[in-house]
Amino acid sequence: MNQQQSQYLIVGGSAAGMAAAHAIREQDPRGTITVLSGEPDAPYFRPLIPFLVAGKKTPAEMAMTGCGPYTGANIVVQTGARVASVDPLAHCVSLEDGTHHGYEKVLFTTGSRPYVPPDIEGTDAEGVFALRTLADARRMAARLHQTEHAVMLGGGLLNLKAAFALLEQGVKVTLVIYSPEVLSQLMEPGDATLIRKALDKAGLAIMTGVAATGIMADASGVTGAALDNGSTLACQMVCIGKGVRPNVEFLTGSGVAVDGGIVADRYTGASLPDTYTAGDVAVTHEPISGTPIMTALWTNAVEMGRCAGLNMAGVKTVYTGTFGILNATQVADEPFVAMGVVHTTGKDCEVHQKTTASTFRKLVFDATGTRLIGAVLIGDITNAGLYRYVIREKMDVARFKRPIIDHTLHYGHFMR
Length: 416
Ligand SMILES: Cc1cc2nc3c(=O)[nH]c(=O)nc-3n(C[C@H](O)[C@H](O)[C@H](O)COP(=O)(O)OP(=O)(O)OC[C@H]3O[C@@H](n4cnc5c(N)ncnc54)[C@H](O)[C@@H]3O)c2cc1C
Description:
CATH architecture of the largest domain: 3-Layer(bba) Sandwich
Bound molecules: flavin-adenine dinucleotide
Low-confidence stretches: none
Structural class: alpha/beta
Helix content: 10-25%
Strand content: 25-35%
CATH topology of the largest domain: FAD/NAD(P)-binding domain
Radius of gyration: 23 Å
CATH superfamily of the largest domain: FAD/NAD(P)-binding domain
Distance between the termini: 64 Å
């Protein structure tokens, strides 16, 4: 069989894949590294794509080239190269175009794709989007000229980002959320009050406790969204933000263990020899409880990808896991951080909360009150790094619990 061959083959060229390629090159200056990327675009910073819709950045400004790890490092990136199947015994992958690529070690960093609920009718209409790729962002931007009103289904962070991009372009935006409040995965409804106020002030219309049942369209594309309360919203664009699903289908029949995502061991190894995994597609573990977990965060993907690259290059490196919830960002000029255990209603834990006109702080300790296990900070996010450290290291906080609660913790408190 006529096929290309690489020492290190990486399937998926984004946060995890490119971080891995870089880490391998640091350790192995000469080994051949090939990245197969299913997208037509060269690797780019995915979290920036809403800025393309907002008209604030060009694709060139989002490219990893220049600041990306592979520049000048003799890492081959093949775009439009989608892997269809893997034969771990033969150490070979087959691409959708019928070609094959052999490897000594392979890393799966195929990430995730938006989940489109099958019970909503009409999601294939023109003008329905789920913002994931640069190509999606280009298509959204191209429809702006005929969009007065956009309906966003889902109140998660990605939809909020997309909503603000549209607002900046003068589009009227309505968020339709089934949960009682925005960002329900990251905080409890009562915790989101300040963020909700900021969203209202920014001009976002928000409907809670409602779901879409269908999307109407004519020859021009989307014309409206039907809701389960019997009402209809006239609109020219619908954006679906209902979470993501891992891209694992190409592993069918390969024998590589998949349980939701690709199962990773503590050294980022997948289940068969010479196979590794990292990023959104990987099932790793939660550092506090040790339970299996999948996340969808750029920083986690880079960290795990780098760890996988080191392991592939022979530098045995343990991956210490990741919080299920770890997010530090800004919504409507309101900075916030959510990490660890944040949903506390009905749970056996100790919660300390403080609200001012412009800040909200929730600190969650375990039932014994001796370990910090979660935090939500809105408005004032100072100390977030310290809290993350305390949670991650599972520190006994007896000596500095009061400074944590009073928000006066500093590194001096860790010194004995
Ligand atoms: C709009 C938006 C905003 C975001 N904002 C933030 C943020 O503020 N902070 C944050 O931490 N995270 C954010 N994220 C999430 C973050 O982008 C992801 O967690 C991160 O990109 C995951 O990286 P990854 O390398 O694991 O996978 P991905 O970035 O999903 O990349 C996987 C790549 O593999 C390719 N691929 C899939 N299947 C195949 C195949 N069979 N063959 C070849 N290639 C394949 C895909 O096409 C894709 O290019 C955002 C995401 C989006 C969409």
